[in-house]
Amino acid sequence: MTGALEINFAGRTAAILHPAKGVRKQLIDRLSALGVVAAGHWPTLPEADLAFDFLLVDIDMGHDEQIPWEPGSAPIPMIGLIRSESPGRLDWALRHNFDAFLSQAAPGLIYSSLVVATAKCDERQRIAMREAETARRAGMRQMLIQAVISLMQRDDIDEIAALKRLRAFAMIERLPLEDAAARLLEKSEMKRGGGRR
Amino acid sequence: MESAFQIGLIFSLSGPYTALGRASLDGALMAVDEINSEGRVFLQAIHGDPEGVPARYEQLVEELTRNGRVRHIVGGITSWSRKDMIPALERKGALLWYPCPYEGFECNDHVVYLGACPNQHLLPLMDHVIANGKRRALLVGSNYVWGWETLRVAREQLSSRGVEIVGERYLPLGDTDCSRVIADVETFAPDLIVDSLIGPSNHVFMRELGQIATGAERPLIVSANQTEADLDCLGPAADGMLSMGAWFESLAGDAMDDFRARIAARYGDDYRASCNFATAYAAVQLLAKGLTAAGCDDPDTVFSALAGHPHDTVLGRIEINPVSRHTSLVPRLAVADSGAFRIISDAGQAVPPDPYLTALPTRPIRRAPNLRIVS
Fold first, then answer.
1. Nearest residue, CB atoms, A10 vs list B358, B366, B372
2. For residue B367, what pLDDT band results from cuts at 50, 70 and 90?
3. For residue range B247-273, what is the model confidence (pLDDT) as tens digits?
């Protein structure tokens, strides 16, 4: 967890996927007291409008087809509504990586669920971005090696000095090392190309 | 024939907030006697005294509600005690009529929140001090949820509007060693003290503050929990302190004159009624109205009979929100002056409750700084 906790959700919207009209109404009222405009749906979310800020899903009856994202990749906080506590349904909810849970017997605690879900979703997205960035850079290892060899040949230096030079270039350009390597190779390619013209 | 209902009154008559417990119990008992003399409904009040010991509150709820004997309780002073009572209320299906200002951020189906929440006390209080040019604030509070949360809101409100927070101190509930807070006042010379101390901690702090700073040298002290119940203990040390509350003894009007006369007839001319007294009185009156309308003491039925429409009470015309279960109240700002609170500003009409402060501007969505660590 980093940064300040978000504690005011006024002006946001929520979708509630729950088969019971009474539960949907209860949650809509509770959310309204927190300044969140909510709408209840079952069994499907309206295709035309997926622009809500929270998704609350009944864990007992929820299924994959209802959730418009791959498990664990929801771009918004998702809250699981716990009813029966059956292990199979909890397992399904965990596979979807819900950001917070709320017992249907305790709708008065929905504020805590919003706070936790928002913070956890934020953290989940930060981790996902970091992992994607790590994977992208790992895919550029070959360029890194090529750039180091290129510098060694161009400046007649050993690999340690070449890496140091590349690192200095990355700092000046404010780029990750792998992107700096790509930029360097691109530049030397253009130079060679220019020479030929 | 009138219906008879047993109700519980849980107020501490000893411990760290005795004055507030005594005031609330007095208000509640006066209302019980008035209702019983009217004859529409008969209330049999059972008083439980937790003596200011947190663990005793939950036990008393269990005892009073055993076998469905009592289904409505008026009581609790601190949020600590209310939060301790809630699990027992949930187990027993009972309803708590909570008569004190509190810090908000709660909405439980077994509580009716009759005291003010932060948009009705702390926010207008902070607006007032900022408008009056205060620039250096020291925050002091009792070390439990009331102190933590009121001072958090104060800190956010003040610092976002350019007031420097020179310090923030908490004293254990009932602690009277205020030396470090007094040292902070001497060291940092604040022009504002936001005071969320309760009971003896506050009495000692105010008296010691009066010894080191007087007149124009003394920082302005503001509070959302000081009432007439504290003034006897504070004496002249309270003079100049500002308090935001839903009721003060000096409220004008015929109905208030009549209320004060009945208080004097029952408790004597010298008796000091407070917001705690008036809110506990109003709580019992509302409960009796709900019981009469419902014809039974089922908590949901009684609550539904009352919520969502206005009621004329000693607090003014108020309304309980059926979802948040909080009450619209009239914020009033008063200054302590020679042993009484003189009202200096009155919102004039009830302000709807906003226990989660949803009307405050939301924070902009956080963005990571556009910097990279190059590795």
1. B358
2. very low
3. 999 999 999 999 999 999 999 999 999
Comparing CB atoms, the residue among A3, A10, A176 nearest residue B362 is A10
Q: Are B217 and B147 found together in one domain?
A: yes
pLDDT at B26: 98
With respect to residue B238, please indicate whether it lies within any of the assigned structural domains.
Answer: no
Tell me the average pLDDT across B169-186: 93
Question: In chain B, how many domains are there?
Answer: 2
Q: What is the distance, to the nearest Å, from the Cα of residue B41 to the centroid of all Cα atoms in its chain?
A: 28
B258 plus B167 within the same structural domain: no
The parent domain of residue B204 ranges over 122-223
Q: Which two tokens stand for residue B21?
A: 């417990």
B205 and B156 housed in the same domain? yes
User: Which residues 81-100 on chain A approach chain B with CB closer than 8 angstroms?
Assistant: none
In which band, very low, low, confident or very high, does the pLDDT at B232 lie, cut at 50, 70 and 90? Answer: confident
Q: Which domains does chain A have, with CATH numbers?
A: 13-136 (3.40.50.2300), 141-196 (1.10.10)
Residues of chain B contacting A108 with CB distance shorter than 8 Å: 106-109
Question: Residues B186, B191, B197, B202: is their CA dihedral positive or negative?
Answer: positive
- Per-residue pLDDT for A196 more than 60? no
Q: Which of B110, B356, B357 to mutate to test the interface with A (most CBs of A within 10 A)?
A: B356
Q: Which residue of A has its CA nearest to B321?
A: A33
Phi and psi (nearest 5°) for B333?
Answer: -105, 130
* Residue B255 sits in the same domain as residue B303: yes
Q: How far apart are CA B241 and CA B219, in angstroms?
A: 9
Q: What is the pLDDT of residue A47?
A: 76
pLDDT score for A88: 86
Phi-psi region of B243 (alpha: psi -120 to 50; beta: other; left: phi over 0): beta
Mean pLDDT in chain A? 91
Q: Do the chains contact at A171 and B374, CB–CB below 8 Å? A: yes
What's the CA gap between B277 and B289, in Å, rounded?
18
